[in-house]
Amino acid sequence: MESNQVESKIIKLNSNESKIIESNRNESNQIKNYRVELNKK
Question: What GO MF terms are annotated (predicted)?
């Protein structure tokens, strides 16, 4: 029983981590786009 709880916690943590990674990727893309725009000016 306990090992199942631990496993589900790990799964939740993993999914949270991948959300964070995804949002970081989006942010860094926005920053790149912003730099490109600045360079055009």
Answer: ligase activity
Return the ∠ at Cα 27 (arms to 25 and 28), rounded to 5°.
65
Per-residue tokens: 38: 């600045």
- 3 state SS of 14: helix
Integer-rounded Cα Rg, in Å, for the chain is 18
Residue for token digits 């912003």? 34
Predicted confidence (pLDDT) at residue 18 exceeds the cutoff of 80: yes
* Structure token digits, residue 22: 């995804």
Q: How confident is the model at residue 1, as a pLDDT?
A: 62
